[in-house]
Amino acid sequence: LRAEAGRLGVGGVIAPNFAIGAVLMIELAAKAARFLDKIEIIELHHAQKIDVPSGTALRTRERLQKSLATDATIPIHSVRLPGFLAHQEVMLSGLGECLTIRHDTSDRRCYMPGVLLAIRRAPVLRELVIGLENLIDL
Prior knowledge:
The protein is an alpha/beta fold. Helix content is 32%, strand content 27%.
């Protein structure tokens, strides 16, 4: 898709998660990973969610591994149970301390600001952009 979009000079957006809070969680965890490099990801979703792990969890791991410049695989723990919508936490630890960065979704409307951002920006893009974080100034 990226090569074809570039060849045609058209853009588009692929986002593993359209919630601004989820994007911030990933970026904050990537910054923290420079200092606390023992990391695990826990993602919890409703019982009907098919993908395991979620695209957000995979994107988080990819971003953290890039931040750490390592090929070591960061574990992802996936939970699929009734009563959840979408939740993810990144746990980072160091000697005698643990930092948890968590994003909770309680209403699907939280995705709309990110969807609208992508819709407004896509027509002026000349390439395929992967990740909503590339459309906001972080």
